[in-house]
């Protein structure tokens, strides 16, 4: 058996036929399809059973609703394929995907191989690009190990999505790599556990997967206290279970995940119960700040701001973080420019990370005196009145320096700045020049 395809299903009858057909039409031979119905109530199980009656390579498992993690685990345990592939039951796979991936993975003796995806469907007003697997990573098409990959690309891509990857079954079983059950964001935990085991891997840019963007899916579901705490617990697990080699990196990823979850709380006006806030505080305090870099310290500081807003406590420990941040940023040349009233500083790509970086420096060292100008790719007349300018206008605007405000698109932004800006302008990178995200 070359590949076992595992499909967890929960109330996706409307899209299920397209998904199953895209698997049955694969060009590869010697593969099985394990469909795990996770307590569907919309007729999905009946449709699955109809397929099983006419296709001998389909195996059906029916269970009470336990979540996608449990469904995938059951499929993995009974699978017989050399490689494992998990697909979401509302999505579609290109018909040559499994044959191409299996042949390449077998040839290079890979533990995992990841391909590219696009979006199927749209919701008006949403930026669907944020849900796509990000192609801006290094060493596409090269065989590498997982630790090297994450150390090189941790700030460019949050995780390699489960349905975009085939896995060597023996690698998963040997390392006891199963999904967490009865929780959301189990894929985040699964991905980091795999990378911690240093798989031999390859990433290709073939678009084989079509991910459906729809309302009422996990991907687009409403943010709640439960979902926030699920996410925080997952990132706490990433930190707690990090290996010695990846400790600082997993601290950075984990604390950043917790920080972003708390930002979601503020954005969606969700008030966490005090018991949860105390749990978060206890966990943050358990981290040894002596081994933290600036990125971790800034994210920890944001978490303490959230705690202070809700509990008005922990001032002593908070001051320790202030001291470490003050000492870390104090020798950066940019800081003197921020506190010089004659300096004009531009920011291009004003992302959450840049806002956090500047906000905590301001709260640590006092209000800035420089003038800020904001640069965007596209602007309108109203935005110009608020010091927001188009990138093409850079050469007509006086600035002493410009900060690349997005780590994610840093290379593209730098190219754009160099194309339109004066050569004498100093360009600061959050990662390379300002110490944010540096290991």
Automatic annotation (TrEMBL):
The keyword Transcription does not apply. The lineage of its organism: Bacteria, Bacillati, Bacillota, Clostridia, Lachnospirales. Keywords: Glycosyltransferase, Transferase. InterPro entries: Glyco_trans_2-like, Nucleotide-diphossugar_trans. It comes from the Bacteria. SUPFAM superfamilies: Nucleotide-diphospho-sugar transferases (SSF53448). The keyword Calcium does not apply. It holds the Pfam family Glycos_transf_2. Signal peptide: none annotated. This is Glycosyltransferase. Residues 4-118 form the Glycosyltransferase 2-like domain.
